[in-house]
Write a structure and sequence with these properties.
Its main location: membrane. By secondary structure, the chain is mainly α. It is 77% helix and 0% strand. Helix 9 packs antiparallel against helix 10 and helix 10 crosses helix 17.
Length: 397
């Protein structure tokens, strides 16, 4: 018996038995780690080579995150955003100019005294000179023994030193570049503050789904709110610390106590490293200022006392546990941004780390990063205040 073609097509094939319908899972591809590594290397290289552009841009974005709540506060009370932005930017400019004018005289005085400070240091620490000279002679003998050649002629080394540009020459050369960066930062800050609401509208519209829109708004508002709260709190604490250290330096007879107060305020924005730098500077100036070495340790003791009280009691109590950071991550961030962008990068290291931590906290796939950056891994992550975020969320229409 023969089957027609249509009947043969209707019969199930024995070679290919029917299978139950099952969902087809997409094949998971391994993460392209080599490409990710190359991208990170290229990104770091671009940030380093183009720091003249990226540094003021990132600094403007950080200031915008801190000051945006202020602009929004006055906007709800009928004041245009551009008016508040102009007032904030002009106030910042006036503070920079006023601070530079106030500090120009004492800093210029210390720069002029640099040669005499070096001679005074050499005289007061003269008892160490003998051992240092012996070490240098031993090093030269070892060099002669290993290479068979003598050291470089003293005149050549002195000639190199004399040909190096002085500090004032470096400052005069870099002043136009610094002014251009400050101008770029302030102009960009004005636009970011004046059009901050537009940024959130564009952010909402660019997200594909409703859940992504809510998450993006929550992350943006959390970073803005927490970073603003953190920097305003730390600025207040550091200002009080500067007043305390400046008063202490005035009591013990240190020159320029106002300069010491401002210096302590600025350096304390750099955790761990800033206090060490201040203590070292106070040791040097104390040795030059006071007649005996025992009295020279009064300034570093004053500096150490106030910074220890601030770091161990005041800041943990005021800032709270919500924004506690892993000390290892903080130190590595300071070292990395300091290497990348110098002294200004060290100031920006902790705020950038706070923003990264808040971003990672709101992304489930980055939970390990948030856990590493957190100060206490056993502490549960606090949920953001949804009511506050919804109340300040802009309309996407």
């Amino acid at each position: 018996m023969t089957l027609t073609d249509s009947e043969a097509d209707d019969r199930p094939s024995e070679a290919t038995p029917p299978q139950a319908d099952a969902p087809v899972e997409p094949q998971r591809q391994s993460a392209p780690w080599p490409l990710t590594g190359l991208f990170l290397i290229a990104l770091v290289g671009a940030l380093y080579l183009a720091k003249g552009f990226f540094l003021p841009v990132v600094l403007a974005f950080l200031f915008a995150l801190v000051l945006s709540p202020v602009v929004r506060f006055f906007s709800r009370r009928g004041i245009a955003e551009w008016v508040t932005a102009a007032l904030l930017v002009s106030s910042t400019f006036i503070m920079l100019v006023g601070g530079s004018y106030i500090l120009s005289d004492p800093i210029g005085e210390w720069v002029d005294r640099a040669p005499s400070i070096a001679r005074e240091m050499e005289r007061k620490v003269g008892y160490l000179r003998g051992s240092v000279e012996q070490l240098q002679r031993a090093s030269k003998e070892v060099d002669k023994f290993t290479t068979g050649k003598g050291g470089a002629a003293p005149g050549a080394a002195q000639e190199v030193v004399l040909r190096e540009p002085g500090l004032l020459s470096d400052v005069a050369t870099s002043t136009p570049d610094i002014l251009a960066r400050v101008l770029l930062c302030l102009v960009l800050l004005f636009f970011l503050l004046a059009y901050s609401e537009l940024f959130y509208v564009k952010l909402v519209r660019s997200m594909p789904s409703l859940s992504d829109k809510k998450r993006a708004l929550r992350i943006a508002h959390d970073i803005e709110r927490e970073l603003s709260r953190y920097l305003f709190t730390v600025t207040f604490i550091n200002t009080m610390l500067g007043i305390a250290i400046g008063s202490g330096m005035w009591v013990i007879g240190m020159p320029n106590p106002v300069l010491w107060g401002i210096l302590a305020t600025l350096l304390n924005f750099i955790p761990y490293v800033g206090s060490m730098m201040g203590i070292v500077l106070s040791v040097v100036v104390g040795i030059v200022t006071f007649p005996t070495l025992s009295e020279a340790f009064y300034p570093p003791l004053v500096y150490l006392f106030f910074t220890a009280v601030e770091g161990n009691f005041i800041t943990p109590l005021v800032v709270g546990r919500r924004l506690e950071m892993n000390p290892v991550a903080v130190f590595l961030s300071i070292a990395f941004w300091g290497w990348l962008w110098g002294f200004v990068g060290m100031f920006m290291a902790v705020p950038l780390l706070v923003a990264i931590k808040i971003f990672a906290t709101n992304i489930p796939s980055l939970g390990a990063v948030a856990e590493f950056l957190s100060g206490d891994p056993r502490r549960p992550v606090e949920e953001p205040d949804d009511d506050e975020g919804e109340a300040s969320a802009p309309s996407s229409g």
